[in-house]
Amino acid sequence: MDSTRPEPVEYDVVVLGAGPTGENVADRVRAAGLSAAVVESELVGGECSYWACMPSKALLRPAITRADARRVPGLSGAVQGPLDAAAVLAHRDEYASHWKDDGQVAWLDSTGARFYRGQGRLHGPRKVVVDSSEGEHHVLTARHAVAVCTGSRAVLPDLPGVAGARVWTSREATSARAVPGRLAVVGGGVVGVEMATAWQALGSQVTLLVRGDGLLPRMEPFVGEHVTAALTEAGADIRLNTDVSAVVRDGGSGPVTLVLADGDRIEADEVLFATGRAPRTDDIGLETIGLTPGSWLPVDDSCRVDGSDWLYAVGDVNHRALLTHQGKYQARIAGAAIVARAQGVPLLETDRWGAHSATADTAGAPQVIFTDPEAAAVGLSLAEAESAGHRVRAVDHAIDVAGAGLYADGYRGHARMVVDLDREIVLGVTFVGPGVGELLHSATVAVVGEVPIDRLWHAVPPYPTISEIWLRLLEAYRQG
């Protein structure tokens, strides 16, 4: 036997990736009495804690609060000045834990899972090798499951000049140390519009370049229209149907120039490319088990990889719903499935809405976009419902209830409810308007619970709140 090669260490479950998804998988299996190892090459807490959800919302909260305050009589005059950018960035740093993971490592240790810091790679079925930056080498084997929870990364387009131009991705946009005078944002999806909102409010002159004909194209069309109007009023320059053909930044420093397909040129101090995500599976040893490095990993509803009886892909890597809360939800489902299979349960609850089925990924995934105005949606849009073959009716109503008027002078918002006419249940709901994010969980309960319209009629919204929009939607549906 070669004494220089480490002996394999065996666990019931090995988790690759210690973001919110991986943490929750480990927590669930540990709570059921299984042993677990968690491997992470960066920071425990993952993208959400340090470069996405937490720092981005810390940047956005002052912008949205000031916008709301400016619409309240008696307060608006007191909040006309600029934001204190230094204070906002310092607050952001606190919420990103100053990019240190001591607290999250302590929590992970408290679950009883063993933590390995290093690059983890599959090395054949049920085996993971871990190489640390200090030169340590570990070989881990899994009795029951390996869960790949490595998340996703930002994708840069293959454009001339991008490689050496020191452009921003979402990571740089949420962790920047100073406010750029001019910021160009390429992409009209969630990251693009949220970062345009934040940095415009902090003092940047934002130019938003969008290939398509509207912002937030995956949501109902009226959402992008409201957000476009608000960003334009805030001073952002929004250019639709615009393609970037090259990036020029001599020496990788100083101003950056974007060359557009029509020959126009835009100069900025920084440029953010918010143009999509790719799975972080390119360097985790997929080739050793017959899978393609860098690919998304298709799974069943228990998050077990197709064709495998031991490999799970949970969170962004399976491409079902690239949202932190959905990754945590999948982790609870996958964790329960791993435990049940380890215990020899003969028949799992994998039917629709079963304990081992992540049904909400496709039927009831909620999302809030923290722009001004906020956008919030759950379930299917009208186009998605029709494409899926449902016989549906969309019920639309301006958010013009008394609570909205009290919330803000000149409140502008819109709501849509998509109703399945055969079953008379709600398939999807979309809101846009100030403060609507807090309306969304009621919609999620209605969609996931498949609550009949006749029963929703008896769920009385309190007066005077914005939630009275539910009554208006239901009245409009009954009136046909």
Q: What's the layout of helices and strands?
A:
Layout lengths: L8 E8 L3 H12 L4 E5 L5 H6 L1 H17 L15 H11 L6 H9 L3 E4 L1 E4 L4 E5 L5 E12 L3 E3 L15 H6 L6 E5 L3 H13 L2 E5 L11 H14 L2 E3 L4 E5 L7 E5 L4 E4 L1 E4 L3 E3 L31 E3 L10 H19 L17 H4 L2 E4 L4 E6 L2 H6 L4 E7 L3 H6 L6 E7 L4 E9 L6 H9 L4 H4 L12 H10 L2
Parallel strand pairs: 1-2, 1-6, 2-3, 6-16, 8-9, 8-14, 9-10
Antiparallel strand pairs: 4-5, 5-6, 7-15, 11-12, 12-13, 17-18, 18-21, 19-20, 20-21
Helix pairs in contact: 1-9, 3-4, 3-7
Relevant terms:
480 residues; alpha/beta; FAD/NAD(P)-binding domain; Enolase-like, domain 1; 23% strand; dihydrolipoyl dehydrogenase (NADH) activity; flavoprotein
Q: What's this entry about, in short?
A:
The protein is of the alpha/beta class.
Q: Based on CA inertia axes, which overall geometry fits?
A: globular
Distance between the termini: 79 Å
Backbone CA Rg:
24 Å
At CATH's second level, what is the architecture of the largest domain? 3-Layer(bba) Sandwich
What is the number of helical segments per DSSP (H or I, 4+ residues)? 15
- The strand count comes to 21
Per CATH, the class of the largest domain reads: Alpha Beta
Q: State the oligomer.
A: single chain
